[in-house]
Amino acid sequence: MTIAVLLAALAALGISFTFVLLGTAAKRKETKPNVEAIGLGAVTNFFDTLGIGSFATTTAWIKFRHMVPDSFIPATLNAGHAVPTIVQSAIYLVILGVHVDPVLLAACIAAAVLGSLIGVPLVVRASVQLVQGIVGVALLIAAALYAMSNLELFPIGGTASALPPAQMAIAIAVHFLLGALMAFGIGLYAPSLILLSLLGLDPRLAFPIMASACAFLMPATGFSFVKSSRIDLRIVIGLAIGGIPATIIAALIVKEMPIVWLRWGVVVVVLYAAFLLLRSAYRGPQAVPGDTR
After folding, report:
1. Residue 16 phi/psi, 5° resolution?
2. For residue 290, what are the contacts with CB-CB under 8 A and spacing of at least 6?
3. What pLDDT was estimated at residue 288?
4. What is the spatial distance between Cα 281 and Cα 283, in angstroms, rounded to a whole number?
5. Distance of alpha carbon 124 from its chain centroid, rounded?
6. What is the pLDDT of residue 189?
């Protein structure tokens, strides 16, 4: 019953968000998707579904290619990957969701969404320098997590499908914090997986929790992000167009593939992007001329 309700809610949220996105894009005359963003959305969401993640890789490419100003990055990530993540969540819920404690699943989703709604106003009002610094630090954390995964330093996890009350309270509180950080472009997947595994949950069952938390919070924050001045909706639409089919292919056809060496490559790329962002933050507003929004 819980899975059916979540799937129905996801469908309603996805349709509503798409309607608002396209309507706002039409008013701004930004309905033509960026071709490069389509390819970027396809690649990043494909590997996101297989466990690489999409926020750090998308940020790195956007930074290298100067696709948008640095202050646009959080909104671009949350709005652009929202619909592909909804598709990913639906697949995980159908395949694995029935095995997860519905109270834990729903509570972590609600906590992440509430946290993100607090984070969005902070991002929209934050200075360019602050956004650069936070995203730069986030990339450093992401690179460390990729390296830990390659070195098999992640917790093995347990076999539980539910958590005792004390551990559940910790999971809910941390997902609230992670939701707030998502608004700044800091990915939730890896920290959530580590936390839930440490608390004793079967790591496989963390995937519907992680994906569903993001699938609900990203469009929830996206409603505000798409109407802000710090976003290019042509990039957002491109990411979504490329990401949806790539997510389906990865989840239902490819399912898994050896990606260790790819992850090491991502570590190098992400570290360099983090260096660029932190350098810009250190230098101050003059490092990003023309970005006054």
Report:
1. -65, -45
2. 69
3. 41
4. 6
5. 17
6. 84
